[in-house]
Amino acid sequence: MSENNNQIKAFITSLLCIGLVACVAPQTLPNDTTSAPETTGAQPSPVEEVAEQEIEYGSFTEDQLYKAIISELGAQRGQLEGAGENYFDLAIETRDLTIIRRAVQFASINNDVNALLQLGLLWAEISPTDPQPHLMLSMQFLESGAFKQAISHMARVIDLGGNIDFASLSGRTGRMNPEDRASLIGNLQQLSKEFSEQQSIRVALVQLLAQNRQFEEALLELEGVQEDFTLEPNMVLLEAQIYQSIENNDQALRALKSGVRKFENDKTLRFGYARLLVQNEDFAAAQTQFRILVEQDPQDWDTLFSVALLDVQLENYDGAITAFERLISVDQRADDSRYNLGHVYELQGNLEKAIEHYRQVSIGTNNFLSAQQQATRQSIQLGQFEEAHAWLQGLSRGQPRLEVLFTTIESGLLIQAEHPQRAIELLNTSLNRFPNEADLLFARVMYYDSVSDRQGSETDLQQIILMQPEDARALNHLGYMLADQTTRFDEALELVERAIAISPEDPAIIDSLAWAQYKLGHFEDALENLRKAYSAFPDDEVASHLGEVLWAMGREDEARQVWLNALNTEPGSELIKEAMDRLQAAR
């Protein structure tokens, strides 16, 4: 080799070594090129192997060395795709393991699946006793859904003395059709016979049987796993999950309770136990488990948040306040905690404190709008009308959409609190600024409805429909109003049919359609639609309509049963009582 070539060799050696052990700007290349799950073996990664050995370049041409230099320099400038393509070509040309592993790194960071598969096969060919390429190939085939090929390479990893967790299969087979999964189960059953000492194969088999809803077979196989291998927390969790799948929560709880006694420090297991206790509404027992988790890890903020929520459920308000304040002090789940502090103080009747904490919820967070609504509700209850309005105005200043939204919220709360005059003054002021704002017009419809001004409601609804012919909300509201309060039944039906064409599955619109059909004497159609609406949304208004239609059809016993069922759910329903009294009095 020429002196010039020796200089190139020295330079490329240093450059490659730097590139293989340091980050590639501006993005870090992964050390684990296989994307494999954690394994229990002490097998070094390809990067670590290369970093520790001298690289031989005797078989490289000067052009190949130059191409490697350009690729490394390009990678340092962020040109990762180009570097990956160059290294892929070099790997095919040189068949050098160091270059192949470097090419794998780039293919991995570039998410080039085809390159990874080709490089993996080349690597396996050149180094037939190395389990690492088969590990990489198994993961790539798993990701692409080629499960049989994946299992083949998994088996090869074991043959070559490597380690692999077959349980990773179940994380990718959830959406398989049952026939394909059954075939995969057969493959695993065969593998479990060939490699009887491999626990993860047996566990994966249990998981796939459960996914295929073969729960008895899954439990039987799991029992065998627990007999043949040392019990581990993941086996306990799997057993509990299977019992939950067959709705045997008692057995699931027994399994988890026994598990947390055996594995006291296993966080995942105890958390699963606590969550199932919550699901079973055993809040006190769940709280005990969550508190143990917090004691084991005082900085597990999500668990501390769960403890606080359970304190609220158990009416241990002082404990909840302490926990929420702790979370706020360390800026963990802070806005969720502020919102829940507001709720706690509201439950305690301390409305001033509740308002204070609701208003501290940050704009843009999940609970922001709900928090402002609750703060406004409490302010209205305290008679602090001007203060509540000023606060909302301050939040929405310079944001017209937010101003409109807050106006609709505030006016609705004023109407609920029986302050209709304040509501209409607020709405009229806002409509002077935004005369064509449909949400404000609809909010004013709510005001007109509250004071029984049907003409006012109809006028605003007609204006909304004129501006927005596809507004299903306005079409439905006007259609129902005409069916319920006038004799303009044909017009009502036409409006509601327009609404149902826009939102065919909305139970409120289906109820309105049925009510218009009933008023026109189309009892069978009305009954069919009311049953559909009640199935989707079993509220007292739909129940009152359903009972009335049944009564009109002479099916009085069925009507009474519908009403009684509704009263069991909502004992104070005036709608149900009014319908029953009116129709029974008219007999």
TrEMBL record:
<dbReference type="Pfam" id="PF13432">
    <property type="entry name" value="TPR_16"/>
</dbReference>
<dbReference type="InterPro" id="IPR011990">
    <property type="entry name" value="TPR-like_helical_dom_sf"/>
</dbReference>
<dbReference type="InterPro" id="IPR019734">
    <property type="entry name" value="TPR_rpt"/>
</dbReference>
<feature type="repeat" description="TPR">
    <location>
        <begin position="507"/>
        <end position="540"/>
    </location>
</feature>
<dbReference type="Pfam" id="PF14559">
    <property type="entry name" value="TPR_19"/>
</dbReference>
<protein>
    <recommendedName>
        <fullName>Tetratricopeptide repeat protein</fullName>
    </recommendedName>
</protein>
<keyword id="KW-0802">TPR repeat</keyword>
